[in-house]
Design brief:
The chain is of the alpha+beta class. The protein is built from four helices and eleven strands. The relative contact order is 0.26. It is globular.
């Protein structure tokens, strides 16, 4: 069975487990809060966030990000009826085409592929998903 994944850091795991859900996030570009997921089979490149230093934001390489924060992912079956495509989310949010294309171009520079982006416009109970933790370069399911 194929899955789409919500990629995040080990440092956020206690907060996520305490809530019992993956909670929608508003990122400032879309009016609607959503839980983002990716069809990327290993790690969504746009999930590697910049790190703040004393004076600037620094773009980390994946392995630097992994070693600093730890990587986890939550897997949702790819046939889940709640999933929306990237384009569907943009259309529902009324994101202008020029803004969508700019976001897509920026993501492609970082290795992302908008065709692999999906979202759920509501909280997702953790009971609907499986949890995996990255150990070196292998994903391990946690019960």
């Amino acid at each position: 069975m194929n899955h789409h994944h919500h990629y995040t850091t080990l440092t956020l795991l206690p907060q996520i487990l305490n809530s019992g859900h993956l909670l929608p996030h508003m990122d400032g570009r879309l009016e609607k809060s959503v839980v983002w997921l990716s069809a990327h089979p290993f790690w969504e490149p746009t999930a590697t966030k910049p790190c703040r230093t004393d004076n600037a934001l620094v773009n980390l390489k994946f392995w630097e990000y992994r070693d600093l924060f730890g990587c986890i992912r939550f897997a949702l079956p790819a046939d889940d009826s709640r999933l929306l495509t990237w384009r569907d989310v943009c259309e529902q949010a009324g994101l202008p085409r020029v803004d969508r294309r700019k976001l897509e171009a920026d993501a492609r520079k970082r290795g992302g592929d908008p065709k692999q982006w999906f979202a759920v416009p509501a909280a997702i109970p953790l009971a609907d998903m499986s949890l995996e933790i990255l150990s070196i370069n292998e994903w391990r399911t946690v019960s």
